[in-house]
Amino acid sequence: MARALAAGSTAHRVIVHIDLDCFYAQVEMIHNPELREKPLGVQQKYLVVTCNYEARKLGIKKLMSVRDAKEKCPQLILVNGEDLTPYREISYKVTELLEEFSPLVERLGFDENFVDITEMVEKKLGQLQRDGLSKVSVCGHVYNDQSICLQDMMHVRLIIGSQIAAEMRETMHNRLGLTGCAGVASNKLLSKLVSGTFKPNQQTVLLPESCHHLIESLDHIRKVPGIGFKTTKRLELLGLSSIRDLQTCSPEILVKELGVAVAERIQKLSCGEDDSLVTPSGPPQSFSDEDSFKKCSSEVEVKKKIEELLTNLLDRIHNDGRKPRTIRLTIRQFSLTNKWFNRESRQCPIPPHIIQKFGTGTYDVVSPLVDILMKLFRKMINVEMPFHITLLSVCFSNLKALPSCTRGSIGFYLTRTSSHASARTCIQEMESVPQDQAH
DNA sequence: TGGGGTTAT
DNA sequence: ATAACCC
């Protein structure tokens, strides 16, 4: 019954969206607390990708160029954030913490999570109903200052949701030292939109009656999560730019321009409707490492960069414990027009004899993979001709668990219950299980 | 515009 | 393999 609610019914869901405040900057401030009272930016190449609130007060914006940022604020402290390792690690700690509340946690980037708390809410509701609901009170803001009606069970559910969201934020702060926003609503779209209404480090619940106020507060269709750059351009060519334009557009016109799937989805989004489920992310589907640069124009340079990316990745893969079946090389060629659009990639299966070597570490897995990657490179670039590459990226995907960690083996159960949920810890734990307990 | 990720076609 | 989306 409760299972069916969380999985399928659109009526009673309670979703919370958790959005960490300026995540990379927070991680850097935890790493070096002296940065806390100072304006801080995190730099990748010549961009300030994010900054703390001290810096925002002084006019620094996300994705501002380093030149503009220093001009605006000469005392701005910059730390390099090109290596995502520390952010990735803390990001997964946040997801794991949220998974203690509900297994239905979906990651969105490194700093956002959706949690479906429908079941937890139903359980608490059952407990509360025994001694009356009169003392139930909201945590944080109510969107649009809407008044609460305790006779309305959806109001009660969302209010219980606001209490759970507050617990999540408290736990994140106590255990990880992180602050963030939360939005509570009846679907993913609305929870995400409402989480941003009071920032930073605050939370907001949306009651159903204010749904239209929220969605119509967006000043352009581009602000709707799910309507991206391309779709926006095509809609603008149809003369559609406001939320109201999209709501009232005839479906036939949209279907003709975008196809039935996209048309139906975005028109529902424009009405605040989103029936997509919170899909548990689980372990990552792929591992990639990339580097961008002004110019790379010789095979020797390419090989050197690929070796660097690869050694980094092999470390991460080894740590995860699963083995990839597919390897991909992505490049970006220099061009004056379209500078950050033109990526191309080639991928191929990893030969089984190389996959085997991943676990053991005794054989050199780097050089055969570099050879494969250079072949993929030559499929895209004629190295006899001059070339100008501005980005290289290596990606491992199609990850499979170790043979020992299949269902039915002890490894399977150990991985599922271990807080670090990786095949690596599974192997370590298996090895430490005394023989008489192993079966 | 970085350095990542995901799903759909 | 690419194209779209997300951060």
Discrete helix count: 19
Sheet having the most strands: 6 strands, mixed
Strand line-up of the largest beta sheet = 6-7-1-9-10-8
CATH superfamily of the largest domain: Reverse transcriptase/Diguanylate cyclase domain
What's the average pLDDT? 90
Q: What is the name of the CATH topology of the largest domain?
A: Alpha-Beta Plaits
Number of structurally distinct domains: 3
Reading off the top of the CATH hierarchy, the class of the largest domain is best stated as Alpha Beta
What's this, in brief?
It is found in: Nucleus. Interacts with POLH. Interacts with REV1. Interacts with ubiquitin. The protein is of the alpha+beta class and 439 residues long.
Report on this model:
With about 450 residues, the protein is α+β, with helices and mostly antiparallel strands. It folds into three domains: about 15-215, Reverse transcriptase/Diguanylate cyclase domain (Alpha-Beta Plaits, 2-Layer Sandwich), CATH 3.30.70.270; about 220-280, DNA polymerase, domain 1, CATH 1.10.150.20; about 285-400, DNA polymerase, Y-family, little finger domain (Dna Ligase, domain 1). It contains 19 helices and 14 strands. The strands form three sheets. Strands 6-7-1-9-10-8 form a six-stranded mixed β-sheet. Strand 9, helix 8 (about 190-195) and strand 10 form a beta-alpha-beta unit. Helix 17 crosses helix 18 (about 425-430). It starts with a helix and ends with a helix. Mean pLDDT is about 90; it is low at about 405-439. The structure holds a DNA duplex (9 and 7 nucleotides).
